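Input.
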Amino acid sequence: MADLRIFSYLPNPRVWKATIAARFCGVDVEVRGASGKELRDWLWDYDAHPLTEHERAALSSLARTGRVGLTGAQLFKTDAFMEAQPFGNVPAAFGADGKVGIFESNSIMRAVARLGEAKFALYGRDAYEASRIDSFLDVSLVFARDTQIYLLALSGGTVDAAIHARAKDAFAIYASGIEQALSPLRETLVGTGISIADICLTAELALFMNEHGRAEQLRKLGLERILHPGVQDQYPLMFAHFARLLEHAHFAPELKPYVEKLRSKAAA
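Output.
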């Protein structure tokens, strides 16, 4: 039985925060899921799985209307799922007994780091380092909120200048802080080794790169990509750190091919 089970739409860099941490810490993490569209046909539960036609009919009373990302869709969420995941969103993680729910990707990643702290101190070596790591994770939530709105608007064809401006400002604030944190030529954000702060940065930046495939859509609106070709010159330390981490053995399995695919869209 896995130490932690995660149910989510896939591929999802925010889920990979936990799987990257798990490789450092030796924690057994199981991931279940499918594309966002396919999750409409899944049972949302600790024992998440594709619904059979019989189950769909028998469990019709569980249908709930989706919100963020799956707005308006009929989703089959068990009462146990809603008890463990009160906001009803994915990624949704569960403890080994399937009863304890953990939600929000940073908290799921923290759980992995805590479970494996004896093997690798991903969450810092003392209370001060852990709190500084928390500071980076908390700031990332603000960035993630605005970028999620932006990316969903891009995929839904509803992006406008105001949404673009908020995401651009959020990126500039976040990237400037990361650049400053790395400015003494540090190799990691906190302490002397990789922490969950570095994992979070890499996953969030990889997710934001989904903008690469929307250049023409933005051009028609008279807008430029936030991750335009010159952006690496503005934040050289952050992007160099990102590049180093993508090559790391614990980051590369999911993130490297994901980023390479998105970069190929930018080149096209």
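The chain has a mean pLDDT of 94.
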